[in-house]
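Dear colleague,

Following up on Tuesday's group meeting, I ran the structure prediction for the two-component complex that the binding team flagged. I've pasted the input sequences exactly as they went in, so you can double-check that nothing got truncated or mislabelled along the way. The structure tokens for the whole assembly follow below. Feel free to forward this to whoever is handling the docking comparison.

Inputs:
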Amino acid sequence: MSAVWRASRAAVRRRRLQTSVIAAVVLVSSTALVVALGLLDVASGPFDRLFGQVHGAHVVATFDATKVSGAELERTVKRPGVRAAAGPFSQAVIDMPESAASQMPGMAPGPLTVVGRPDPGGDVDRLDLFAGHWATGPGQIVLALPDAPGMGNGPHSPLGKRIRLSGQRPLTVVGLASSVSGTAQAWVSPQQITALHPTTYQMLYRFDRAATAREISEGLSAVSAGLPFGSLVAHQSYLTLKAQVAASPNAYVPFLLAFGILGLLVAVLIVGNVVSGAVVSGFRHIGVLKSLGFTPRQVVAVYLVMVCVPATAGALAGTALGGVLAPPLLHQVFQGAQLGTATVHPTISSWAYVTAALGMPLTVLLAALIPALRAHRLSAARAISAGSAPHGGRGPAVQRWLSGVRLPRPVTLGLGLPFARPGRALLTVASVVLGVATVTFATGLSATMVAYGRAEQDYGTAQSTVWRGQPRFDQTAPRHNDAATQNLLRSLPHVADVAAVGFINVRILGRSEGVAIEGVRGGRSALPDNLARGRWMSGPGEVVASGRFLAKQGLRLGDSFTLTGADGRQERVTLVGEILAGPEDWMRADWSTVTALAPEAQANQYWVHLTRGADFNAYKKAVQAADPGLYPTKNTMLNTDAVTVISSASALTLMLTLVAAMGVFNTVVLNTRERRRDLGMLKSIGMTPRQVTVMMVASMAGLGLVGGILGLPLGVAAYHVVIPITEHAAQLTFPARMLDVWHPGLMTLLVLAGVVIAALGAVLPARAAARQTIARVLHTE
Amino acid sequence: MTTEDISGTAPGPGPAAVHEQGVVRVSGLRKEYGDTVALNGVSLEIGAGEAVAVMGPSGCGKSTLLNMIAGLDRPSAGQVCVHGEDLGAMNETGLALFRRRRIGMIFQFFNLIDDLPTIDNVALAAQLTGTPTRQARRRALELLDELGIADRRNVYPAALSGGERQRAAVARALMNRPALLLADEPTGALDSHAGEQVMDLLIDLNELGQTLLLVTHDQTLATRCAGRLVLMADGRITGERALERSA
């Protein structure tokens, strides 16, 4: 084996440039792979781990207490397929007063689902009581909040604060807990819940089989069988929670995987090209090895080890680099992601690193095996006498034809060069194809994401949001009331339009969790242009919401449902439009819908659309001069998700473009070496260095053009595959106008990208060839 | 430089004439490759229309001298002037243009491009100067005709005999009407019959006024084709004598 190792080491040293190309290509591909696998892992891993640790509820079921008894529900625990259960817990909905909510970060005024539970442990949904103690006595309440800094202690901690309810004794916050399953917004003792007039029971189930929605449905059918009709009023599957957690990262996974696959393919092509080039140019070397007594297998081993060394080094370095680059990206992607009220901490499992570190070299070895087997078959005598593999293909015929073409002779000579080695030319074209496909795919993706980013800016076209001052935050109260404020803001100079925006919390009849309505009054032109399907609300009783809302509530466009306000007012609304993206518990409605549910509702912010060229600072001064109780802020026109996708896509595109260019670089290096004698002769008859460069660049530019023409449809196809997957996974809906990104001018430029990639890869070795001293080459055979 | 005049040989052109019509003027030429000194203070002049053969053992520096005169390599010290042009003052592009205009080269192994038929191999030298293809091919055909291989114009190098390949290489070297024809072992890879043909060709060219510098191991080639013999050893010129061409 030592002889093989020595021969391989010598081969590596002799081909430093190509060894470096392999290492660089594998490095880039490994990095992309680690990032993509890391995202995949974090999107599912932490949920499964955390969910398993705390025995999360596969189903949180809510039963109508007037139709079913606690005893009947206790018996459902013994139903087939139920592995564990908790409950029945009495459940009530109280109205969180504004005065209390404003003192507690993370709490909103409005309906609050409270569950009577004796302790935070149990067989299902073990709560993380991270601050204070459990509610065991009367007047005590534990709030469901994320374990964020300052939540459990400090001046803003809810601990010790009181919630005053009308007709009830106040509840004191004695503890803070988080629930992976999001089973409640607060807990009290079973004795205390009776005083809150519970109307429903909560049951928490874990099933033997709960991997799919179908199995969840079967489990639910089993537990509800035999219970009075209509007693099960609501249920929530853990799969829905999981999908919500994964929604944000899932926007990144499809395109990152696409980049990973493209990188892998480019790496395979380049490695195949490098090894076949090494075999072709190393015929004599192979012959010498065989004549020295190397067996055919040992010769193959020499070539495989020669590739294995840089591939392993590249994979290890790429994996390490991925380990450095992935965490900030994951942090960005999973920022604020929560399982119920438990926070997700994105860490990549070791399998992602192991897969990249071992998988890449293995793939490279497989790519090298095919050309290396050619060395296995080659007879020693033929190899030694041939020196290098004879040229094949249609080279002479093409050169003959090109010599008559009215182009400068170095150009026509260059264009004919690839035909002498059609196999190598095909591999080079393939790397350019993938390079152009990558650029095309990324360009389309970026165009869509830019359009999405523009439409998804929280404040649409409004350059400024003006907030009403809140004395409880040590701000000045505004002198003008809500309607007068809107009129005042509209009357100031350089204002195009003003929308008044306010929020109320409501419940969908039959569902336990609350939803927020964003009411908009006037100022339509200040709203974001983010309608994906349907139409905007045009009057009372109409709402629009995101795909996530639709998925969570199981609604479709055109569906009608009843909303219940804090004081029991009800309003039937129809879903008339779907917006690109938004929270799963949020709707937008006309102001008339808001006042129908909460007549006293007031706008707390105003979205101001300034005229073109208006100065925000001047406007801010004018607002504060008109009413010191109004606080204008400048809106950032930035969508972080879109920026992350675009920046990471751009970085990966740049990397893969460089990798594709490396493939061309490698081909030109091989061609230059093989053509040393021809180059020398051409120089001897007066070919200038510039003409040599032109010839070598032209030899690749032709391939680049072919690669561009073939790569363009591939990139467009990749776009059309990945975008729907992204939409589905991230629960987004892109309207047709955002997918209309392919225009003739852009497509022409993308085809020319192939020429640019080829020229980029060719220019350095071409210039090196132009400077090469050729005196010695000409005198030897 | 040590120059050994060998008496009893046919007189070549006188020194004064060489100086007056000098095509090549090399003085104090030195070339080092690392620690190896390939040329060590070589001076040489070649007059217009002269045929000079350089002989010496392997590694004596004769091919290096040829490369310096062709502008294919740069000296470590000394000066090379060809047709009044100082090669040391030229950049790479200037040297390429110089070779295009002034130099024709013939190699032992022909150095034809395998992918091009004979006529296009020959025409290439003119095409690089921007000569239109049709005109370049016409001139190439004339040369091939003069060299007796016009009927092989569409044949690829692999199908030519050694002699035919070297004739094609000579035609390519003559394409731009060079001031100086450099030949490095032009018969080294040929059988005796083909070698004879190439020798006759070189003599004919010289008799037509073509200045010729031959580098060879072959005494017969030198005595048949050259009017002056330069002997080299260890990077120096060790002797020089006029030759009377044998029949």
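Residues 391-457+638-781 of chain A form one domain.

Cheers,
M.
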